[in-house]
Amino acid sequence: MGGGDKGLRPLAGEPILQRIIERLAPQVSAMVINANGEPSRFARFGLPVVADGVAGYAGPLAGVHAGLEWVKGNHPDLAYAVTVATDTPFLPSDLVSRFLAEADGELRLMVARSGEGVHPVIGLWPVSLAKGLEASLGQGERTASKWVAAHGAFEVLFSDVEIGGRRIDPFFNINRPEDLAAAEGWLQAEAS
Asked: Which pLDDT belongs to residue 58?
């Protein structure tokens, strides 16, 4: 995408991150943004911003860890944290309820699966995993898919969604300019 924060790129007139916040807010009791660098660039969203607690830009697992630590420090009564990527604007509106239903009262790591495969960063994480995740990061682990598989993550299957008359993966992520253009086209078709 040419650098910068993908979540701040405009999609149908608003930042991708705003669309994600709007989809996730009704599903959770609190939200935090994980981002390294200057946090003021996210001020418009009115959410706390927490940087990775692990040095060296260790990737998505470090972001998950930062989120788990934030929940422990700010909402110690919560057993779970939900994580999503900031480039997935079509997240299911029932993401959290589906995870919780599949957990069936058992405290377990849940991750999203779609027709495109497993999405290890989109998950329901027991906050109690923070210490083990920190240890793994300290040992150099950086691969989210490897970590969730090694920790017995339960995969919850989500069907495609219809947007603008097309069936698309609900975890479609915007990685390239052509992905952004495709998402823009689907939303324009949906609006008309």
From this structure: 84
